[in-house]
Amino acid sequence: MADTTATSVQTATSSAPSGFWRFVRRNPTLVVGLVILIGMVFVALAAPFMAGDPLTMKPIDRLKPPSEQFWFGTDQLGRDVFARTLWGARISLVVGISVALLSVAIGLAIGLLAGVVRWIEAAVMRLLDGLMAIPSILLAIAMVSLFGASVGIVIIAIVIPEIPRVVRLVRSVVLATREQPYVEAAIAGGAPMWKILVRHILPPTIPPLIVQATYICASAILVEAALSFLGAGTPPEIPTWGNMIAADRIYLGRAPWCIFCPGIALALVVLAVNLVGDGLRDRLDPRIARRM
Amino acid sequence: MHETSSPLLTVDDLKTYFFNEDGVTRAVDGVSFHVRQGETLGVVGESGCGKSVTALSILRLIPSRIGRTVGGHIAFDGHDLLDLPESEMRDIRGNRIAMIFQEPMTSLNPVLTVGGQIAEAVQIHRRVSRKEAWARAREVLELVKIPDAARRLSDYPHQFSGGMRQRVMIAMALACDPKLLIADEPTTALDVTIQAQVLELMLELKEQTHASVILITHDLGVVAETCQRVIVMYAGRKVEEANVFDLFDRPAHPYTRGLLGSVARGKAGSRLQEIPGMVPSLREPIVGCAFAPRCPFADERCRSESPHLEAVAAATGDVHTAACFKSAEVMAA
Predict the structure, then answer these.
(1) A190, B95: Cβ pair inside 8 Å?
(2) Which of A157, A289, B66, B195 is deepest in the core (most CB within 10 A)?
(3) Are B107 and A185 an interchain contact pair (Cβ–Cβ within 8 Å)?
């Protein structure tokens, strides 16, 4: 009796961890990325409750190092760097997620149409080849100088050059899928084109798109930061990580926290999004998943 | 067998050509035949002779970017299928005329359940609820004798064997009670014992549903077992048409004779006869009889003049035609 309990306890702890821990152990990148990302989303949402006002200037407290009162120190105008970093997370995440969703949605629609309707394919693919040649930073600078600086313009400017990449991905899957015998069989069964699109051709595009969306998100966050840093993105009165680094870069020697805090936050978010992307790719690509 | 019932499907002078940079390929060049109610018509010939293209042309499934049907008429149940608008054609596909493809392994979407795929085929043509469609799916799965059909509805294609999957395809084709079933090499991808089962099942179901069947195959054994009438195709044309008994007893075209000669009849040590040479390219216009370069009977006339289908004397008194100047010689040989 005592023997059996002892062995069963042993097997339970050594070889059969519960479902959750097994998932963690098999998908370390996905879990680490998700934990960081969810943490970031949480602090971004909770910024008004966790930190003070990011805009209040206290000239008497300018360039103070991190302390109990100012966790991340203060910047050249005496603003709380902790509050600004948290508020900055909002812009970064909003830009990253909006760009990912918009470019995937638009790219998916165009890609599906181009994969099925011949004349759209010919016209659109040439146009998109042209679009792909435009560097996103230059396009954004041009658009901001034309329409004025705002988060919306920044998002649109980053979305436009991402669309061709999504379209190409979708189209490659559509081209492979539409030659499948089951698609031919569905046509021979009298299914209307839209039904074949929704039932047979759309579903296989989703897993690679989810992975692609995470990479687009990460790159959009970086491009937004770069644009803010260059002064061609979000207006300077809005606290973003790029704006913060740009404003205080001359104090790098005296007050490195002004730059390191938003810089580390930026690196963490991009790392987390990329980890989630890698983790999802490993989970969603059946060829890799089978090996695990 | 006599021509009692009027034909369900009449194909008249069908021409389907493929177009590419190199020129025109005459894949089907003036083929005519008909299928009567409840009849099984065999279409035989080697790869590339236009069997499948004929089938796809009937359903207007030739992709427009590679080819199209340039001539002829296809009368089905009072409609000319070549004149119907696409929306009405969609209503015929899968509903009045169903097709079974060669590849049971890939003709089902691997990520959807078998029941869902059959139910969807039902819902395309019938205004029924999801539940009723699933009930019909279960019914047809039982019809094709899949054990434990109710439970297998929620299985995925990879959980079925090849023969079982072909049964599922047959069930799907029968789901809307089609009047005509076109089976394009339905047993080619299956192993021999399963082939027999699937064929037997198809025949049985044909009797039950009174559907007509066009059976496309290169397997003469299958034809002998299942068909009443046979057309033989070569290089995009019909070269012989006969009742199955006449065709096997006294083939009138040397190509049919060659095909019959190349079937293994189980006599140990006897060498199989092959048909020498190759199928002619359908890109260049063919002068004379297309089979002449491979034909042991061919003479000067065969190489310069193109033979037309003509009636030959049939033992059963049924229609027997062949496109050969030497048919009398071939039948006597």
Answers:
(1) yes
(2) A157
(3) yes
